[in-house]
């Protein structure tokens, strides 16, 4: 018996289908190692819930570390962004020498005080005095941190960036702007990840948004999906039959989380195979009911997190099956104007339940969710 190599619900140790993005990131890291220089653009990987953003970011972090870089990980959304930054930089400096550590600690204290004094403003074009000074202190903190980290430099990783508050995003962008003109030789770079509408969130908060560069993560294509199922098994000497693979691929529809679930369930159905054993079509059929159950619970918990109005919106969307639905049509089905549903549309995007694949359209982020909504979603249900 061997443990399952699949990772439903946890970070993937190998990210399939992301070769081009990883190649670029690795090239940037290699360049920075050779020529220490601030990376002027903040790279942002955007994609739907469960598409593999955190796994990609962790892979880049591991790559950076194996090249000798220091790294700093921030997950936005759990409290103010600057607070999370302060904490992460403080952790980074934990095993530095006393003087370097003390200097950074002083700046971080100043940062905490400044952020506490910043007024909340939603107008991106009118930075308050406090705001620009917050950007300045963030700049100092990043500079001190990257210098203190030493060769070859510091890599900042920000996950769930769509959940960062506007003040935090603005301060980060200001800091980067200043650093680029005042400390261009600073070996510092940032990779971020967030839901598909991260760009809207950032553009609303920051006026010079061209500093950010977005790369879209999609579901895995058939070839990468196949590799994601086959290769972890092969590494343990276990083969999938072509029939088993085809069945599993059809169930997962390229969605990384579902690939891991069906892989894991098939592995169990095959009796935790030893090297030389095979996962066959009958194992996948056997795994199917368990897969459906996991999928149902996954959909159900998403559905229950939605408000009645959000549920009504999703029911209107589901009428189009799994294909993208027009906003105008959803509004009509709900008996409302397009404008009046824009808030609920946005909150569903914040929750990661829907995406906007093209202007004027929305679609569900997980394959099969539309069918679930049609089958089991009942907006009037007691919650
Ligand atoms: N490139 C990949 N190849 C195979 N499996 C992957 C890949 N990326 C992620 N996974 C798997 O998909 C699931 C979701 O991964 P991950 O948590 O990285 O996604 P995410 O986009 O960060 O999700 P969320 O939006 O919920 O934060 C996990 O089970 C993970 O093991
Ligand atoms: Mg994630």
Give structural attributes.
383 residues; alpha/beta; Rossmann fold; Helicase, Ruva Protein, domain 3; Arc Repressor Mutant, subunit A; 3 domains; five-stranded parallel sheet; three-stranded antiparallel sheet; 15 helices; 54% helix; globular; binds adenosine-5'-triphosphate; binds magnesium ion; AAA_16
Briefly say what this structure is:
The chain is 54% helix and 11% strand. The protein is of the alpha/beta class and 383 residues long.
Tell me the major beta sheet: 5 strands, parallel
CATH superfamily of the largest domain: P-loop containing nucleotide triphosphate hydrolases
Give me the side-by-side strand order of the main sheet.
2-3-4-1-5
**What's the number of domains?**
3
Span from first to last CA?
42 Å
Q: Name the CATH class of the largest domain.
A: Alpha Beta
Which small-molecule species are bound to the chains here? adenosine-5'-triphosphate, magnesium ion
Describe this structure in words.
Residues 39-223 form the AAA+ ATPase domain. This is AAA+ ATPase domain-containing protein. The chain has 383 residues and is α/β, with parallel strands linked by helices. The chain folds into three domains: 19-216, 3-Layer(aba) Sandwich (Rossmann fold); 222-302, Helicase, Ruva Protein, domain 3; 306-376, Orthogonal Bundle (Arc Repressor Mutant, subunit A), CATH 1.10.10.10. Helices cover 54% and strands 11% of the residues. The protein is built from 15 helices and ten strands. It has helices spanning 19-34, 53-66, 81-92, 98-117, 129-149, 166-182, 198-205, 222-234, 242-252, 256-269, 281-305, 308-318, 327-334, 342-350, 369-376, and strands at residues 42-46, 70-75, 154-159, 188-194, 212-216, 239-240, 278-279, 325-326, 354-355, 361-364. The strands form three sheets. The protein has a five-stranded parallel sheet with strand order 2-3-4-1-5, with helices on both faces. Strands 8-10-9 form a three-stranded antiparallel sheet. A hairpin with a 5-residue loop joins strand 9 and strand 10 (361-364). Helix 3 packs parallel to helix 5 (129-149), helix 6 (166-182) crosses helix 7 and helix 9 crosses helix 10 (256-269). The two termini are 42 Å apart. The mean pLDDT is 91. Adenosine-5'-triphosphate binds at residues 7-12, 15-18, 47, 49-55, 228, 256-257, 259-260, 352.
């Amino acid at each position: 018996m061997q443990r399952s190599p699949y990772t439903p619900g946890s970070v993937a140790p190998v990210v399939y289908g992301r070769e081009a993005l990883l190649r670029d990131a690795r090239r940037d890291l290699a360049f920075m190692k050779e020529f220490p220089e601030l990376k002027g653009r903040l790279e942002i990987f955007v994609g739907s819930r469960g598409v593999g953003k955190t796994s990609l970011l962790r892979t880049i972090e591991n790559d950076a570390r194996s090249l000798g870089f220091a790294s700093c990980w921030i997950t936005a959304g759990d409290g103010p962004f600057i607070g999370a930054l302060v904490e992460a930089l403080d952790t980074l400096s934990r095993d530095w020498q006393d003087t370097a550590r003390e200097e950074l600690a002083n700046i971080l204290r100043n940062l905490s005080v400044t952020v506490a004094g910043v007024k909340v403003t939603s107008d991106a074009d009118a930075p308050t005095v406090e705001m620009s000074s917050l950007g300045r202190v963030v700049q100092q903190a990043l500079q001190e941190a990257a210098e203190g980290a030493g060769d070859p430099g510091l890599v900042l990783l920000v996950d769930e960036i769509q959940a960062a508050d506007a003040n935090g995003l603005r301060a980060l962008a200001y800091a980067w702007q200043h650093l680029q003109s005042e400390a261009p030789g600073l070996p510092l770079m940032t990779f971020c990840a967030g839901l598909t509408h991260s760009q809207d969130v950032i553009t609303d908060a920051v006026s010079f948004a061209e500093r950010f560069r977005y790369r879209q993560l999609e579901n895995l294509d058939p070839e990468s999906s196949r590799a994601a199922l086959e290769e972890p098994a092969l590494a343990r000497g276990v083969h999938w039959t072509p029939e088993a693979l085809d069945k599993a691929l059809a169930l997962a529809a390229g969605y990384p989380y579902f690939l891991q679930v069906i892989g894991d369930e098939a592995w169990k159905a095959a009796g935790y195979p030893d090297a030389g054993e095979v996962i066959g079509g009958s194992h996948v059929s056997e795994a199917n009911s368990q897969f459906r159950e996991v999928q149902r619970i996954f959909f159900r918990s998403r559905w229950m997190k939605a408000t009645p109005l959000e549920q009504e919106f999703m029911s209107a969307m589901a009428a189009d099956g799994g294909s993208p639905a027009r906003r105008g049509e959803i509004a009509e089905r709900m008996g409302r104007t397009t404008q009046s549903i824009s808030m609920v549309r946005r909150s569903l995007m914040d929750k990661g339940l829907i995406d906007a694949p093209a202007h004027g359209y929305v679609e569900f982020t997980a394959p099969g969710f539309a069918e679930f909504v049609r089958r089991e979603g009942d907006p009037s249900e007691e919650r």
